[in-house]
Amino acid sequence: MxxxxxxxxxxxxxxxxxxxxxxxMTLDALAAQADISASHLSRxxxxxxxxxxTVLAKIAxxxxxxxxxxxxxxxxxxLLDADLGRYLDMLGIxxxxxxxxxxxxxxxxxxxxxxxxxxxxxxLPPLATQELVAxxxxxxxxxxxxxxxxxxLRQAGMGGPAFVRAWLQLVQTPGYRRILVASRSFFLLPxxxxxxxxxxxxxxxxxxDPQAVSTWETSEWVRDPAVVRRWSTRMLLGRDYxxxxxxxxxxxxxxxxxxxxxxxxxxxxxxRLERDANFELAITDVDLGPFNIYAVDGQGxxxxxxxxxxxxxxxxxxxxxxxxxETSAPVAGLIDRLWESLPEIDRSREAxxxxxxxxxxxxxxxxPAR
Length: 370
Hints:
By secondary structure, the protein is of the alpha/beta class. It has 19 helices and 6 strands. It folds into 2 domains: 9-120, lambda repressor-like DNA-binding domains (434 Repressor (Amino-terminal Domain), Orthogonal Bundle), CATH 1.10.260; 127-366, Endonuclease, Chain A (2-Layer Sandwich), CATH 3.30.870.
């Protein structure tokens, strides 16, 4: 006698279909081995009819699972569809489109919910974490600063959706800017770059906020040089990072600059140095540390560290955010400390322009076609 399990049989169809597909069985093959018609099995999988426990036990035997497996899968699908329904409510999607989305495969529904969850959970770090970041940035010993920030990044850093959202929010915040770039960074992406492609190269398979992409493609804060120049800026660049980009004819993964983009950056930096007395730029061989930093005076700061290659974690943690004057001041102060520690020649406006022009000329000699 078949022992009856507490299975909600009206939801068992998706579980049968998923197990059948996982085992590479066709609908006809499973129906034949379970001694039922293919049309009946098709109706079962689409939840158009309910299986008897005898039929369910036979299907479970053919698939090599216990009925308890159907219980687990049914529970998973119930929770999945509850999440999907909640997100569709938030998006204002009703019938008949709503009904069609619930007819998608379990994997398609799970992928959709996962992407929506990533976007929904893209929040800034809590105040307690921001205070720890500020405390770490205030330490006098720079190696200890980097160690402390690394620990915080691993423990409480932001993933891709939250990082990009925070970065573009900061870009559109008025105020005196301090920018440090020592390695590959979103902070130097040219306005014409494909943000989606750069993002997916770093955060493979993760959702990107559509509003962030729209901001990147349309905002005058990103695209209009006159708006960019409105805000006084102090920028530190690692010489090695820029030299490697200028010597690289093909764009690297993620936000790495191609040679063409690096040449464009040089031209924009020279133009601003010559036109804008409120723009300070240092290019140096001095070790600037393992992080890139973007800070707006009294408003907020973003610490960035992008992985050179994808690690084992499913979601790389790449950013730490601080907001408001109390927590952002130590982060901005960290850049000022590094600035003051540089040799005067690295901060000289004239010397920096000469170096940038020389790099342009040498890149042109390596590639006369440009």
